[in-house]
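Hi P.,

Sorry for the delay on this. The queue was packed all week, but I finally got your sequence through. Input first:
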Amino acid sequence: MTLADTTEAAEYLALVLVQGGLQKATARVLAAFMFADEDSVTAPDLAERLGISSGSVSGAIKMLSTVGLIERAPAPGSRREHYRVREGAWATLMSAQNGMVQAMFEAADRGIEAAGPDNPAARRLEEMRDFYGFMFREMPALIERWRVGRDRGSGA
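Then the structure:
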């Protein structure tokens, strides 16, 4: 794969992430992490590669660290902070999002209570509650199956 190929693929990944709701700078920073040739990178390196401000990179790093996708990396002899994609980042993200799944379940449940029984709002909210209840119950087992498969070398 050439540099042009990886640049195009990284920009495509960033576009997909933006369409999924991520801020543009954060999406581009995550894509840069995913396509980096090095195990870890610094914020100034990312700002230079992406042509964006150091403040945008800093905000993106903070957000990506908060959700568990990236972490600080050891860099003996370097004066700058290094960051890398966290091992198991995607499973960590989905596990952390169980809190959001639970919150959506609870919001639907409260909505059903407020809307009362047997009306269109209650039916929509019941479907929402049932879906998020299912996701909350199933997500841990699904993540564990993925981890076992990955550890066995089968990927998925």
